[in-house]
Write a structure and sequence with these properties.
There is one protein chain. The chain contains five helices and seven strands, in the order αβαββββαββαα. By secondary structure, the chain is α+β, with helices and mostly antiparallel strands. The protein has one domain. The strands form two sheets. Strands 1-5-4-6-7 form a five-stranded antiparallel beta sheet. A two-stranded antiparallel ribbon has the order 2-3. A hairpin with a 2-residue loop joins β2 and β3. It is globular. It starts with 7 loop residues before the first helix and ends with a helix.
Length: about 150
């Protein structure tokens, strides 16, 4: 499985000390949020619901996968301090997959492969990328919508 390494722009951010890696923002191994098949919001303790996956839309969650473990967190505005960005999920280590993820009442209802850090756009068409995403979701034990099952072909 190829690993995605932070893109050139990320290396430039590191050189300019604009790296979000040391962010104090919280991210989570998805499996630690799952209870009874549903992802639970770590703050409200209710089933997690997030915003639609639209560019510039606040309230989205992002994900990255390394060693079949998916980490998630609320997508933050890069211009602000202590926010979650893709590079914070695994502290700039290479990842197997990355993108955005949407939850509704605790179930995953949308997922994509958009990451400016790891440049994974259009990778969801690759069988190995989908396999890694599917395996990490299975390992977490979270419920998946039919649309997500079709997208990742499980």
């Amino acid at each position: 499985m190829p690993y995605y390494i932070a893109a050139k722009i990320e290396r430039e951010r590191n050189q300019n000390r604009e790296n979000q890696c040391k962010s104090g923002a919280r991210s989570y191994a998805l499996r630690t949020l799952v209870e009874g098949g549903l992802a639970i919001d770590p703050l409200s303790h209710h089933p997690l619901s997030t915003s639609p996956l639209e560019r510039g839309k606040a309230g989205k969650y992002i994900y990255a996968v390394r060693n079949d473990t998916m980490r998630v967190g609320p997508d933050g505005d890069r211009s602000k301090k202590d926010v979650v960005k893709h590079e914070t999920l695994f502290r700039n280590l290479p990842v197997q997959a990355a993108g955005e993820i949407r939850f509704h009442e605790g179930a995953v209802i949308d997922i994509n492969d958009l990451s400016g850090t790891y440049l994974t756009e259009d990778e969801m068409e690759e069988e190995e990328f989908r396999r890694v995403v599917a395996e990490s979701l299975r390992e977490a034990g979270v419920a998946l919508s039919q649309d997500v099952r079709r997208r990742i072909r499980v």
